[in-house]
From TrEMBL:
Record membrane topology: Multi-pass membrane protein
Family to which this protein belongs: Belongs to the MIP/aquaporin (TC 1.A.8) family.
Keyword flag Transport: yes
Transmembrane segments: 31-51, 63-85, 156-175, 182-198, 218-248
Localization of this protein: Cell membrane
Pfam families: MIP
Source domain of life: Bacteria
Ranges for region Disordered: 1-28
Keywords: Cell membrane, Membrane, Transmembrane, Transmembrane helix, Transport
Protein name in the entry: MIP/aquaporin family protein
InterPro entries given in the database record: Aquaporin-like, Aquaporin_transptr, MIP, MIP_CS
Amino acid composition bias (Pro residues), ranges on this chain: 19-28
Length: 256
């Protein structure tokens, strides 16, 4: 290195270009890279949820301890995935979040385009299915076995509305207040809490719901229960966006 060449540390210190925050879709990342991040991230998330559920049932017969192990693994896994892949794709891993971003973009806010929506959602669904199959393979379970865990009760469906509405309120509330840098901790913490305070144990994610139908284990959901769960999640997303509009209403300036 010559005397006229800047040191590497100086170059790093001088880099003041804005970095994308988790939850915000980075505009300059190639779409194929973002799709890959959504697929891999959703697959890893479902593998964590399903795998930790299988592990928990093998270690104890206490359902409370099983749920504690499952929720704890999900909190840590989700936080790491958001921190890692947020700067690439926004770390949605969730069609409800992607749809909400697309809707806000149509209303003049930041978000994904229709083309990005058409790429993200299939990537998330394929990733979720792959994650469930991977978890089953790691624990010697049948690679694909439809779940027999019925979750069709009305109180569980209400729980999905609440869980999804809270998730959307959190993510878009952080965006409205310029605090998306807290997304890895905040979103993971919310999901961990919602495991316990919602009757449905907080799926709050259509892709994950589909993926979990492919495994007849602790985290599974019967295919017959999937459509109603997804319907309630979409209703929850609408409720969440409505709450964002009311709670984080922007005031008018004097000129306006």
């Amino acid at each position: 290195m010559t005397a006229t060449e800047p040191a590497a540390s100086d170059a790093v210190a001088a880099d003041t270009s804005p970095q994308p925050a988790p939850g915000a879709t980075p505009p300059h990342t190639p779409l194929i890279a973002r799709a890959a991040a959504e697929l891999v991230g959703t697959a890893a998330l479902v593998a964590v949820v399903v795998g930790s559920g299988i592990q928990a049932t093998e270690l104890t017969d206490d359902v409370a301890l099983q749920l504690l192990a499952n929720s704890t693994a999900t909190v840590f896994g989700l936080g790491v995935l958001i921190a890692l892949l947020g700067p690439v794709s926004g770390a949605h891993f969730n069609p409800a979040v992607t749809l909400a971003e697309w809707w806000t973009a149509r209303r003049g806010g930041g978000g994904v385009s229709a083309r990005e929506l058409a790429v993200y959602v299939p990537s998330q669904i394929v990733g979720a299915i792959a994650g469930a199959v991977l978890a089953d393979a790691m624990f010697g379970e049948p690679l694909v076995k439809w779940s027999t865990h019925d979750r069709s009760a009305g109180n569980l469906l209400l729980g999905e509305v609440v869980a999804t509405a809270g998730l959307i309120l959190l993510i878009f509330g952080l965006a409205r207040t310029d605090r998306l840098r807290f997304a890895p901790v905040a979103v993971a913490s919310y999901i961990g809490a919602a495991y316990w305070f919602t009757s449905s144990t907080s799926f709050a994610n259509p892709a994950v719901t589909i993926g979990r139908a492919f495994t007849d284990t602790f985290a599974g959901i019967a295919p017959a229960s999937v459509p109603a769960f997804i319907g309630m999640q979409l209703i929850g997303a609408v409720v969440g966006l409505t709450l964002v509009a009311v709670v984080f209403m922007r005031g008018r300036t004097t000129a306006e």
